[in-house]
Structure formats: C-alpha cells, structure tokens
Design brief:
The chain is built from 10 helices and no strands. The chain has about 290 residues and is mainly α. The protein has 2 domains: about 150 residues, no CATH class; about 90 residues, no CATH class.
Length: about 290
C-alpha cells in the first residue's frame, strides 16, 4: 500500500514537472548572456593581441619586416582563429550553464543547444561592435579637441589623395569652381589653393572614371605655372598621376572587398563554432547526475 502511494506521488510529481517544463521558456537567457560576455571579452583580448603582434612585425622602412601580403594573410588567419576560440568558448559555457531539460526529446534539446550557441554569438557580436564603435568615437572626439591634432588633420586633408574624398564629393562644388578658372594661372598662387583645386578635379574625375580634356588642360596649366614645365610635359604628368590614382583606387577597393569577404567568412565560422560548442556543453550538462541526500 505504501509502495503504491509512493509510486503515485512520483508519477504526479513527474506529470507536474513535465507540464511546467512544457510551458516554460526554451531559452536560458542567463547562460546566453554569460556566454556572450565571455565571447566578447575573448574577442577583444585576442584582437588586441593580434594588433600588437602585427604592429611588431611591420616596419615603416622598406625591405624591413613582414610584407603587406604576409601581414594580410596572417590577419585573415588570425580573424578565423579569434572567432574559433572566442565563439567556441562562449557557446560551450552557454550549453554547460543552461538549465536541464529532463523531459524534452533529444532532438529538441539539440536544437535548443544550437540556438543557444547562435544567440551567444549574436549577442557577443553586438556587444563587441558597440564597444569598438564607442572606442572609435572617443578616440576621434579626443583627437578633434586637440589643437595639434586639428593642425595635423588640416595638413593631411590638404595633401591627401583624391580617392579618399571622391565618395563624399559635392558635385556643385566642382561645377562652381569651374566658373572662376583662368586661362592664365597665377604662378604666385598659394600652393595649398592649387592643390585643393587639383584635388577637387581629380576627385570628380575618379568618380566619373574619366578625366575630361578641359580639366586635364587646366590642371596642366597649373602644374606648368608652378613647375616651369611645358604645357605638353605638364599634360603628360597629369595623365600619369591620374592613371596612378586610378590604379591605387582600384587596388584599395579590391583590398577592402577581400577584407570584408574574409570577415564575413570568419564570422560565419564563429557562428558555427558557437552553435556546435553549445551542443557539446549541453550534452555534458545533461550527463551530470543529481546527488540526493541519504
């Protein structure tokens, strides 16, 4: 009689537990957030380590240190390694720390563990992006408040290459500057003003992927007035510089495209690693046996 009553009590408790678990949330947010912060912290730590190693392996002097291609390949490999380590650790912790689903089918448990790993990767990525954006904003804001930095930025803006501003070029500025062009440039004109005008013309030409003949002739007149070259030699110099700018622009765009492509691949690898590691942690969590008091 006592055994029958005890069995009935256990059956009733199991039914209540199963019913409560069926209506409970399938996400252990505490485990997800913990794993996401661990993943974000590891991302930042390994990123700092990679930047330090990269800067120590390059040199501003030619033929010294690692080449640009070697640094690029190493950076790609390091991005993948960082995603593998950080995402796997965060996903594993989320799977190991989540609650135990005792009455859920094994397939559903596997899906939930996979989802927990993916959530860890997603939240960790958002945290890392927010931190890096905040750090970049602080650095830019601090540099803008420094008088020395302002002077440096002005000088750099004056002598910087045209491709950097070609995407933000105001078309009206280019056409308005054409109203005040002279057929006889003043050789005593300020170099900064001449460079700024040439920069504007080149930026417009790079955007249009063509340097108009009248623009080339005008820039050549500026160059001839400043350097003493003949008009023909100045035009050849302008054409050569514009061709170099086009090559540099194409190379920069190609490099940026490859960087973002490999970043996309690395992030996908991180998402897979986090999801897979969460299933490993979840299986180990389910193997844990409860120790009952005797």
């Amino acid at each position: 009689m006592e055994r029958s009553t005890l069995a009935d009590d256990r059956s009733s408790l199991r039914e209540d537990f199963t019913k409560n678990e069926a209506y409970a949330s399938g996400v252990s947010w505490a485990a997800v957030i913990a794993g996401a912060f661990v993943a974000a912290a590891l991302w930042l730590i390994l990123l700092a380590l990679g930047v330090g190693i990269g800067l120590s392996s390059v040199s501003p002097w030619s033929n010294i240190g690692a080449s640009a291609s070697a640094v690029g390949v190493a950076a790609i490999i390091w991005m993948i390694v960082v995603q593998f380590i950080a995402s796997s650790m965060g996903g594993y912790l989320a799977g190991r720390l989540r609650t135990k689903w005792a009455t859920i089918h094994t397939d559903e448990v596997y899906f939930r563990d996979t989802a927990h790993g993916f959530l860890v990767w997603s939240v960790g990525l958002v945290i890392t992006a927010a931190f890096l954006a905040s750090a970049a904003t602080s650095i830019v804001g601090g540099a803008a408040q420094s008088p020395t930095a302002l002077t440096t930025v002005r000088e750099a803006g004056t002598i910087s290459s045209a491709p950097s501003d070609s995407g933000n070029l105001d078309p009206t500025e280019y056409f308005l500057s054409g109203l005040f062009r002279s057929d006889h440039p003043n050789p005593d004109r300020n170099d900064a003003a001449a460079r700024a005008e040439a920069k504007l013309i080149f930026a417009h030409a790079l955007r249009q992927k063509n340097l108009p003949t009248e623009d080339k002739i005008y820039v050549a007149r500026l160059v001839a007035a400043k350097t003493g070259l003949s008009q023909t030699d100045a035009e050849n110099r302008v054409s050569g510089v514009f061709a170099q700018l086009q090559q540099e622009t194409d190379a920069t765009r190609s490099a940026m495209a490859r960087v973002f492509l490999w970043l996309f691949i690395a992030l996908l690898i991180g998402a897979f690693c986090a999801s897979f590691a969460a299933t490993i942690g979840g299986r180990q969590r389910d193997r844990v046996q409860l120790v009952s008091d005797r």
